[in-house]
Amino acid sequence: MSWRVVAIEKPAKLSLRDNKLVIKQDEEVALPLEDVDSLIVDNHEVVLTANILAALAEFGVNALICDDRHLPATIILPHGKAARSSKNARAQLGMSAPLRKQLWRKNIIQKINNQADVLEKNDFLDAASKLRKLAATVRSGDVSNNEGVAARIYFDVLLGDATRRQSMWHNSALNYAYAIVRGTIARSVASRGFITELGINHHSELNQYNLVDDLIESFRPLVDDYVLSKIAPLHLGDEYDSSLTQADRHLLLDILNQYGIILDRRYTIKHITDLVVGSFLEAILEDSTDKFELPTIVK
């Protein structure tokens, strides 16, 4: 099973040799492609060719290309690997409206409860109690937008930033780590032949990954928990610090190796993403939300 998250932050030339990714900088490093989970290209002077991209797809590696702010800007995914991809796509297209709404309800209940867990771990007990009540009253399709109400309470208490639009280190860190998890979910979704544009709730005509942005929701508090425990201590006293350092980014690369709970067992987030996408497939094939499994936070 692949396990490496490789980030290239300096000018480099990439090539292939014996099913290895060769990275040539001041020195040359060769990594077996079967070990590489994700490749993050964070420098505009990295040279890679079409045969590299084809090899990444062949080995199921997703590539994230970063922008000038060092945040992932696009994802390059492997497609067409599923043995029954057309069957899965047809099942996705055939989902009934009630099933979509109930899947979304279950997703949002878990997300809000995970947010409450994060608040409790940080001793915001009153706010956590409010979120538990919101989770308990989510209706089919979340027509009352309990998700949005919970988010405003959650981020205002946790970060003092209910909109998450301030240029602060914590927003950059969250966006960076969300993007890594999003890329991993996207790969799992694409590898099963799902139509990434067709979500259960997200439906933007401009978003190629509506389904991915549905499935990531319950993972977001797991990312928040990691950022608070691993990155926040490095920024104590930096009230107005808007930067995300190279050290921060290196720590964030390890997000996929952090643990969550699913099916009453501890798994890495990387493993959980695949379990969630697999359970989503079971749910739509059997027309049952009971099959849909979602992660919880390690307490």
Task: Summarize, please.
This protein is α/β, with parallel strands linked by helices and 299 residues long. 45% of the residues lie in helices and 16% in strands. α3 (97-121) packs antiparallel against α4, α3 (97-121) runs parallel beside α5 (146-159) and α3 packs parallel to α8.
CATH class of the largest domain: Mainly Alpha
Q: Low-confidence parts, pLDDT < 50 over ≥5 residues?
A: none
Query: What is the overall number of helices?
Result: 10
Mean pLDDT figure: 91
CATH-level-2 architecture of the largest domain = Up-down Bundle
Q: And the CATH topology of the largest domain?
A: Four Helix Bundle (Hemerythrin (Met), subunit A)
Overall 3D form = globular
Q: Between the first and last Cα atoms, what is the distance in angstroms?
A: 27 Å
Secondary structure tally: strands: 11
Count of the domains: 2
Estimated helix fraction: 40-55%
Largest sheet: 4 strands, mixed
Structural class by SSE content: alpha/beta
Q: Secondary-structure element sequence?
A: EEEEEEHEEHHHHHHHHEEHE
Q: How large a portion of the residues is in β-strands, by DSSP E?
A: 15-25%
Cα Rg: 19 Å
